[in-house]
Amino acid sequence: MKLNIALLAGDGIGPEVIDQAVKVSDAVASKFGHELTWKPALTGAAAIDAVGEPYPDETHEICKSSDAVLFGAIGHPKFDNDPSAKVRPEQGLLKMRKALGLFANVRPTFTFPSLLDKSPLKKERIEGTDLVFLRELTGGIYFGEKGRREEGETAYDNCVYTREEVQRLAKKGFELAMTRGKKLCCVDKANVLETSRLWRETVQAMEKDYPEVEVSYEFVDAVAMRLVQWPNSYDVLITENLFGDILTDEASVISGSMGLMPSASLGSDIGLFEPIHGSYPQAAGKNIANPMATVLSAAMMFENFGLHAEGKAIREVVNKALNEGMVTEDLADGGKSYGTSEVGDWLASNI
Amino acid sequence: MKLNIALLAGDGIGPEVIDQAVKVSDAVASKFGHELTWKPALTGAAAIDAVGEPYPDETHEICKSSDAVLFGAIGHPKFDNDPSAKVRPEQGLLKMRKALGLFANVRPTFTFPSLLDKSPLKKERIEGTDLVFLRELTGGIYFGEKGRREEGETAYDNCVYTREEVQRLAKKGFELAMTRGKKLCCVDKANVLETSRLWRETVQAMEKDYPEVEVSYEFVDAVAMRLVQWPNSYDVLITENLFGDILTDEASVISGSMGLMPSASLGSDIGLFEPIHGSYPQAAGKNIANPMATVLSAAMMFENFGLHAEGKAIREVVNKALNEGMVTEDLADGGKSYGTSEVGDWLASNI
Ligand SMILES: CC(C)[C@H](C(=O)O)[C@@H](O)C(=O)O
Ligand SMILES: CC(C)[C@H](C(=O)O)[C@@H](O)C(=O)O
């Protein structure tokens, strides 16, 4: 395959981890006979500094004309704690999601046997956890009308969902469940919110099309509990944008492997792949960041093109690195550790 | 003191656990020379069955004319998974919160040394955890305009906050922090929501009035993570209604003592005290429910009247019961356990 991939390195450790994912992807491409063309583009604080906005039109054009986007991380401390700043990196993220139609954020949480000890949870609680969240990413309270009235004394945010938005997300959820454990949990707050009642009735109406999938409906507060208690009882979970924001982050820490968790954001067209960790500015430029989450995001990218052997090759080499101690200091337990680029080189040469 | 206390036992295990809290409160009252008058009233599914609505006017009158409300639990399986049911127990809860002006839900999470092993978290993660959430309870998306348009195909929920609503909740938060570790965390999503920006700017403006309190601002998704990673790094957290719903439930399971966690809902006037566990219908009528959370809720009630020695007497007798194994089966680890009413009797006679 010939693939054009937009490369949005972003801020903080973004550029360093992206570099490693490029190396590994190139190694996979040459092994399997694909041709990858990388198209770097600006985003985040880096883009604000360069051209005054976090998701410039030029970046959007590059993304639109590519087959996928590989994304690092965005965010810079100078924009934190300043909710009134006119331009913020996060706005670029939201604009990009909307502009590229990335309505489904796929966030797996799984465990690596060699890393179970790193989980804040007891081993017997976390063992065997392998769940995936599908978070709706372009609707809900993130994108509803918001503002102030009464001279700024009253603020409002509107949460809106259409049946169609729920259907297209739920469809991906049912389909994903069919390829896995055939369990789907619809997470909502239908005892309070009208949007949640729309979610629930829409998913209920789709059940008949997937008779093999066992569907459950749970309130968001109950899921926040069960994720800590019995994370391994879940398979696929679908939920709206804000609940997904909170719960996917909660889920990401339970595995103890947050630095290794990849994600994908999919639409009807192009897909975006990124590590779930942030821009981690304190570590930027030090060659200490763990590149594995970004490398595994590249695996999701290949798999999304239907290139499963390629994805598997990446997953296997990451496992091998973990088993052989070819890791950055966050995973070294005080033992020998390697730099970001050394880990990347090792992964690429072991493909 | 002479105190009139409305007694809303509610559904499921509510009546059983409430009975024990009454016994223990009466024992405390007779020891310290107070006079308690209990005023039973209907609520929840029990009220729907009896008079067709979950929070009848008569119940409201009894609550209004009392000095406090002691509450069991509400909810019944026959109303679950039926988001379209016309009358639901939860509506009574929301109506009651609003009608009684209970704008601040106080949700402590603390640990009992003897129960640390029950936590899903590793001991070193949970040890020393002692945090309190103040959840705004009568505003936000729970009470904003909600409905459907486009013939039911589009649903919306509006989240609204006024500066005053934020101020009165934050004031309680600052004051509580002053009596404890002097740390206050404002939980919001100010990088996305306008209501969160109002929260943040309002709390920021109040900082100068409490120079001793160290205030931090964290995004809700980050808090969902840190609660699992380092729960003992928090002291007092304040947040809006929906975030509070999710995070307080998440926090409640980390201690491993969910069956023991009390709560209070306060306004400018009357206070309501209730265990955080639900109505647990499977256990109803079996004399197996753990009454300690309700008993500790009564302790919070006494403390809210300024009766600190009384509250302390209750906390101490609960600790004693835990240390001596006078516990219900959920805490017995397969060893000897006692019935709900036996535990209540023991607590009352050991006051
Ligand atoms: C940065 C922020 C706007 C974003 C979100 O809330 O969606 C982030 O938390 C995420 O989950 O990708
Ligand atoms: C039952 C429900 C309406 C309620 C809420 O969401 O407030 C409950 O979850 C709670 O936290 O008290």
Automatic annotation (TrEMBL), chains A, B:
Mg(2+) binds at D221, D245, D249. Its EC number is 1.1.1.85. Substrate binds at R97, R107, R135, D221. The record marks Y142, K189 as: Important for catalysis. Residues 4-347 form the Isopropylmalate dehydrogenase-like domain. It is an enzyme of class 1 (oxidoreductase). Binds 1 Mg(2+) or Mn(2+) ion per subunit. GO terms for molecular function: 3-isopropylmalate dehydrogenase activity. SMART domains: Iso_dh (SM01329). Its main location: cytoplasm. It comes from the Bacteria. It is found in: Cytoplasm. Gene3D superfamilies: Isopropylmalate Dehydrogenase. The keyword Nucleotidyltransferase does not apply. Keywords: Amino-acid biosynthesis, Branched-chain amino acid biosynthesis, Cytoplasm, Leucine biosynthesis, Magnesium, Manganese, Metal-binding, NAD, Oxidoreductase. Its cofactor is Mn(2+); Mg(2+). It catalyses: (2R,3S)-3-isopropylmalate + NAD(+) = 4-methyl-2-oxopentanoate + CO2 + NADH. Pathway: Amino-acid biosynthesis; L-leucine biosynthesis; L-leucine from 3-methyl-2-oxobutanoate: step 3/4. Homodimer. Belongs to the isocitrate and isopropylmalate dehydrogenases family. LeuB type 1 subfamily. HAMAP family: LeuB_type1. Catalyzes the oxidation of 3-carboxy-2-hydroxy-4-methylpentanoate (3-isopropylmalate) to 3-carboxy-4-methyl-2-oxopentanoate. The product decarboxylates to 4-methyl-2 oxopentanoate. NCBIfam families: leuB. This is 3-isopropylmalate dehydrogenase. The gene is leuB.
